[in-house]
Amino acid sequence: MKNLDKKLQNPVWYSLKETHKKFLIEFEGVQFYNPDICNFGAFFNECDTENALNEYAKIANNFFIVSENQKAIIDNNTIILVKKINGCQMVLTNLIEVDITEKIVRLSEKNIDEVYDLIWLVMPGYYQKKGVLMGNFFGIFKDNKLVAITGQRMQTDDFIEISSVVTHPNYTKRGYAKQLIYYTTKEILKEKKLPILHTNKGNFAILLYEKLGYKITRDMNWWHYRKK
Fold first, then answer.
1. Contact at 8 Å (CB) between 62 and 223?
2. Contact criterion met (CB below 8 Å) for 50 and 75
3. Geometric angle at alpha carbon 135, from 132 and 141, rounded to 5°
C-alpha cells in the first residue's frame, strides 16, 4: 500500500517508469511523454526542470507538468506559464453497481479520428490524436456515430487512470457517461489494478464519480506551459 501511495503522488512519473516506458522522453531527470501520445511531464527535483523544459519545448509547443504540490522552475526567456489548472485525484473505494442498458464497444485504432474529433469538440486542447495508444478506449454509438467515450490514460503495475470521459452535447443526460465509467472501472478491476481518475476542482462530474464509489484523495495540478 505504501508503494502504491508513492506512485499515486506522482502518477505521470511512475506511468513512464512502468507501463508507459515505451513513450518516455527524458531530459536531465525530468520525464515526459512522447508528445505525439501525450504532452505531460513530471519531476521530483524542481532544480532539474529549467533546462529540461527548454529541451522538451523544442518538440512540444504546449505541454503540462503534473504535480501534487511542486512547481517547476522555468526559463522566462523561452517558456511561458499559461495557467495552473487546480485539479484533484480520485480513487475507487467501493464500486456502486450500475445497470448497463447500452451496447458498449471497445474502440481500436480505426476509431482514432472519431475519438479525436469528439474529445476536441467537448474538451479542446488537452488530447493528442495518438492518445488512444495509452490504454483501452470504450464507446457508445448512436445514429451510426460515436457519441460517448471513456479511455484509459496513465497507468502503472498498480493503477489505471480513467480519462477522456466525453459525451457529444446532443446526447447528454442519457446516462452514457455513468455506464461507460462503470464499465471501464470493471475492466480495470479485472486486471487487479486500482481505478483512479483526475478532474478539475469544482467539476460537476465529481458528484457522478462519487456516486460510483470514487473518493477525492489529494490535489493533482496541471501546470500548462508553452514555448515563448
1. no
2. yes
3. 60
Q: Encode pLDDT of 4-37 as tens digits.
A: 999 999 999 999 999 999 999 999 899 999 999 9
Q: Are 216 and 68 in contact (CB under 8 A)?
A: no
First and final CA of the chain: distance in angstroms?
Answer: 42
Which CATH topology does 2-88+223-227 take?
Aminopeptidase (3.40.630)
Residue 164: which residues within 8 A CB-CB, separation 6 or more? 115, 119, 127, 131, 137, 149, 150, 151, 153
The C-alpha cell at 222 is: 496541471
In the chain, residues under CATH classification 3.40.630.30 are 2-88+223-227, 90-219
H or E, element range at 218: strand 214-219
| pTM score of the predicted model | 0.94
pLDDT tens-digit profile of 135-146? 999 999 999 999
Closest CA to 133 of 150, 156, 151, 149: 151
Residue 101, CA distances (Å) to 19, 106, 179, 185 in order: 32, 16, 8, 16
